[in-house]
């Protein structure tokens, strides 16, 4: 069996991955808070953990892997957005606006992430459907002395859990000094965080022994992962921005509620997608959405390919140049594998790269090697492991709109040019080169073969005349 090695943030090193139960590999990834279109930063964990999911399914069998990713559909940011909509004239009750907003956002999220070729997780729990489990967990924590109720709030008593800070490697006192912790009259200690808070009549709320209220964000993931995966599971993922406080708080809650369980064995964090050295985020306003890129004509597969070019543990940025190169490569590979029966399994070299802490850039280098060696069946099977070259994947036909026919003709003419060169028919090869230039097709010869793109003055009639 393939040995997978993963960097465990908790251990701060690369470890051999050994599932607790190899017939039931379990992974939980923190999903989006649903009030807005996903920006391209939010797509990074989706793609990273989709590749891991595909690798786990390949190694352990598709029926032996359970992937859970939640939707946070109760949150102050959602309430604030709904309040803005109401202030802007929406006449529905706030709760109805919230329901419509979260439903619509989940629909967008599915459409956008599907377009990136991400498989849907096995379970996608909505927090609002698991409130009972959250209340039960909070009651349990109070019973065990790890939480306390005050003024309609329930707080987690951070100093009651001695392991607090281990994941992020900081002491509680450092954290207090460094973080902007909210001091509130109902807190015993500034580090304590909210498990439950009161809701006004018009906000979403659920009845509890502490009054009508709603859960805090951190308890959602602890309760849902416990319900769907158990007290111990294999992998917990999310962006590095969630390591503290969100994941630290999840660990504290889950370890205190279920001291016999181990919660997550391996913690994996993707680094940030950045814009000029800063995390892309809604609060900084330096974001654009996956939908923006799709609407600009970038096929989802091209976006995916760009992400795979950088290791998940390194920061990355999005550039048009990367997109251009990705598109040229994929266009060429799509031409190579069209109508080809894939090999029965992916190439060992590609599996080995992915098994080495998801070395996606290395896996792509291996795909180039397969393409270069003419192993198109191997290329197709191996690309599938990365979620690439799927013939049902959309985007390509629309990418250049009416120019889809042109794409086929250009590829045909490039093949003709290569043949002419091989046959030393330089007159024909040169005529094609000049013809491309005149028609507005920019051709670039690279070690991997010819790449092309259309200039703004592209003239389909001139291209047609080159036949
Ligand atoms: N710039 C980014 N690069 C990579 N991952 C990101 C980035 N921003 C958010 N994420 C990840 O996206 C996932 C969904 O997070 P969530 O919906 O809470 O977004 P968010 O953190 O609220 O976004 P923002 O910071 O823009 O408000 C999380 O796993 C988070 O770590
Ligand atoms: Zn979470």
UniProtKB/TrEMBL annotation:
* Alphabetic keyword roster: Aminoacyl-tRNA synthetase, ATP-binding, Cytoplasm, Ligase, Metal-binding, Nucleotide-binding, Protein biosynthesis, Zinc
Question: Which enzyme class?
Answer: ligase
Q: What is the E.C. number?
A: 6.1.1.16
User: What would be an example GO MF term here?
Assistant: cysteine-tRNA ligase activity
Q: Say if the entry is tagged with keyword Membrane.
A: no
- Name the residues that bind ATP: 282
Provide the binding site for Zn(2+). 30, 221, 246, 250
SUPFAM superfamilies xrefs = Anticodon-binding domain of a subclass of class I aminoacyl-tRNA synthetases, Nucleotidylyl transferase
Q: Which reaction(s) are listed as its catalytic activity?
A: tRNA(Cys) + L-cysteine + ATP = L-cysteinyl-tRNA(Cys) + AMP + diphosphate
Q: Name one Pfam family in it.
A: CysS_C
Q: Which PANTHER family does the record associate with it?
A: CYSTEINE--TRNA LIGASE, CYTOPLASMIC, CYSTEINYL-TRNA SYNTHETASE
What is the name of the protein in this document?
Cysteine--tRNA ligase
Per the UniProt record, the source organism is Defluviimonas salinarum
């Amino acid at each position: 069996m393939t040995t997978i090695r993963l960097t465990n943030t908790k251990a701060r090193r690369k470890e051999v991955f050994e599932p607790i139960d190899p017939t039931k590999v379990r992974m939980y990834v923190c999903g989006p808070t649903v009030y807005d279109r996903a920006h391209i930063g939010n797509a990074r964990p989706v793609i990273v953990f989709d590749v891991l999911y595909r690798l786990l399914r390949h190694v352990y069998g598709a029926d032996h892997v359970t992937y859970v990713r939640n939707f946070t559909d109760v949150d102050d940011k959602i309430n604030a957005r709904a309040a803005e909509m109401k202030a802007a004239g929406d006449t529905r009750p706030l709760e109805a606006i919230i329901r419509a907003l979260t439903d619509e956002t989940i629909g967008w999220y599915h459409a956008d992430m599907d377009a990136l070729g991400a498989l849907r997780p096995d379970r996608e729990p909505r927090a609002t459907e698991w409130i009972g489990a959250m209340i039960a967990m909070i009651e349990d924590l109070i019973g065990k002395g790890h939480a306390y109720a005050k003024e309609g709030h329930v707080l987690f008593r951070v100093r009651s859990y001695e392991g607090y800070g281990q994941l992020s490697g900081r002491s509680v006192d450092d954290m207090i000094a460094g973080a902007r912790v909210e001091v509130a009259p109902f807190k015993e200690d500034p580090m304590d965080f909210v498990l439950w808070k009161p809701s006004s009549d018009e906000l979403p709320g659920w009845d509890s022994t502490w009054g009508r209220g709603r859960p805090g964000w951190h308890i959602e993931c602890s309760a849902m992962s416990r319900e769907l995966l158990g007290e111990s599971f294999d992998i917990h993922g999310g962006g590095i921005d969630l390591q503290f406080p969100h994941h630290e708080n999840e660990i504290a809650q889950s370890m205190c509620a279920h001291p016999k369980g181990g919660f997550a064995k391996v913690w994996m964090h993707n680094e940030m997608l950045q814009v000029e050295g800063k995390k892309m985020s809604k609060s900084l306003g330096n974001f654009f959405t996956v939908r923006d890129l799709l609407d600009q004509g970038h096929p989802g597969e091209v976006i995916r390919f760009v992400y795979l070019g950088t290791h998940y543990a390194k920061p990355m940025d999005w550039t048009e140049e990367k997109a251009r190169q990705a598109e040229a490569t994929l266009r060429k590979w799509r031409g190579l594998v069209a109508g080809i029966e894939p090999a029965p399994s992916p190439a060992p070299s590609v599996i080995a790269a992915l098994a080495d802490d998801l070395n996606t850039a290395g896996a792509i280098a291996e795909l180039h090697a397969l393409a270069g060696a003419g192993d198109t069946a191997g290329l197709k099977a191996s690309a599938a492991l990365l979620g690439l070259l799927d013939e049902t994947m959309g985007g390509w036909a629309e990418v250049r709109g009416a120019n889809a026919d042109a794409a086929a003709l250009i590829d045909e003419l490039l093949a003709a040019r290569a043949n002419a060169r091989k046959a030393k028919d330089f007159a024909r090869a040169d005529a094609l080169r000049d013809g491309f230039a005149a028609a507005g097709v920019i051709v670039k010869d690279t070690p991997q073969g010819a790449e092309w793109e259309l200039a703004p003055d592209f003239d389909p009639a001139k291209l047609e005349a080159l036949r």
